[in-house]
Amino acid sequence: MAELRSRRSNLAVPGSNPRFLEKAKGLAADQVFLDLEDACAPLAKPGARKNIVAALNEGGWGDKIRTVRVNDWTTEWTFQDVIEVVGGAGADLDCIMLPKVQDAAQVQALDMLLTQLEKANGLEVGRIGIEAQIETAQGLINVNQIAFASPRIETIIFGPADFMASINMKSLVVGALHPDYAGDPFHYILMQILMAARARGVQAIDGPFLQVRDVEAFREVAKRSAVLGFDGKWVLHPGQVDAANEIYSPSQEDYDHAELILDAYDWATSEAGGKKGSAMLGDEMIDEASRKMALVIAGKGRAAGMQRTSTFTPPES
Ligand code: GLV
Ligand code: MG
Q: Where is coiled-coil annotated (predicted)?
């Protein structure tokens, strides 16, 4: 499991709008990504680079992970985006998000450019992470290589809107179920991304839901990827932030239970607890596999800052 810095809610902020950049600092999102790509018109991109550098240098982002989404390598903008943002604000930036990643070489190209920029600007080499967006059929068939393409990779992100266009999906509602299909049309894609992310030990992030005023519908889509194991989801509107933070955290009951399993198993395997490989916790049998499942839930809860509401008492022997 990836080292968990919470990324339950990942707020998209158009770099072309200084008012939105300022407002984003006050929202409860775990992560922000300041966008130079599709939320930024071509003519607005040069100004947006400057707004983003200024907003990052100015600070005030609290504990949020600060990411900038640059344009993809098929455009004429990528190198200039990276040079300007890392050159101007490299010390105040955690990750670069690369959209529409097609193969491992595109990640490696960004890695090399980042390394040169870090050296040229006196920054720690290798600190800036890469977030890879999978948004095309080509990207999905290469996702396993993409996940392992660079030690900088921190997340694999599903980009459902571009992906739907890439595979000619007959729907305009991003990420939602479809009345003419009995299953979840996104299940296969989500699982491929999740497997690649978990095999590499990085986070898997679900993409946007565009009907921003319909928080109930957002919750339905988010719950499906959360239950599979995804770590978080993009949010496009303040109304989606709290929902994402809740849905990608364990429930209080599951968090308490996970911590109890860890304590109980720790006790059972100890000298004092009888060096047992399996034990009972109430009516439940727990063993090493239970500990691993509990570590996942406890890890998510701890990363989200949750507090326990129960404690473990060793059984009388
Ligand atoms: C996000 O970039 C998407 O295409 O869904
Ligand atoms: Mg996209």
A: none
